[in-house]
Amino acid sequence: MKSKVIFILLILIPLIGIKSQIPIIVSEDSLKIGKNLLPGFSVNIPESDYDKTLDAWKRELQASTKSKVVTENNEMSIFGAILKNLSPNPMNIYSRLTRLDSMLRLYVSMEKKKDEYIERTTSVAEYIKVKDYLKQFAKDQYIEVAKAQSDAEDKKLYNLQQELSLIENKKSKLLKSIESDKALIISEKDNIALQNNELQTVDAAIKEQAGSNAKSDQVKELDKRKKKVLNSIESSERKIAKASNAIDKANNEIPVNEQKQARVKEQVVQQEAVSFRYADKLRRIREY
Question: Would you say 12 and 1 are in contact if contact means Cβ atoms under 8 Å apart?
Fold first, then answer.
């Protein structure tokens, strides 16, 4: 029971620092431009980078017009902007992007004609369109952030899975090498037995030649055979020793490998939980 609790805690610990989805809220608000207080809207953009969001907003405003955004004291203005999702008619748009603790806030005022701004009292339909438009812009920025977070966690998971695969393959190779070395030892022992039989035959022949008037060439040939047999036995013994050392080394590496596997498997389980959480966060933002 204790081990189960520890295992659950190990999974939950990495999730503690994960920020959950923050709702996007568009509100009626006002925007101070110079000395004027203009009616408009504000929308929060969670977790987004200020500079990236600012660039995205400027691109959005300038997308369908030759006009450029003018910035002074962090106050942005563009004249004759056309936002196709709202209206085919050009508008003057005033805005400001500010930093908060865990989000940005975009303030926007839209002037259709001189001193005529989009607000609830002038046109409910336009008012709703603007709210939906600003929410979608904020949502797009938030999705970009959440996708980058999710992709980063997926990459961590992939790397851990690759690391685990390499460790598992290493163990498989160690086991195969052990079996291969065991087979080699059996083969070389068989060779030693065969060569020992040959050695006995050669030694007996040499003894017979010693008590006879054998030609020196026959004795030399028997000596060559004996030397070849002894070299073969010595070679087999070296191979057996080398294979035995390799088996011992592999057997010592396997427990270390298994410990690594257990550790990385635990990391994979933890990272799977983190990746799932970020993927779920992205899904929720997209469905918001």
Answer: no
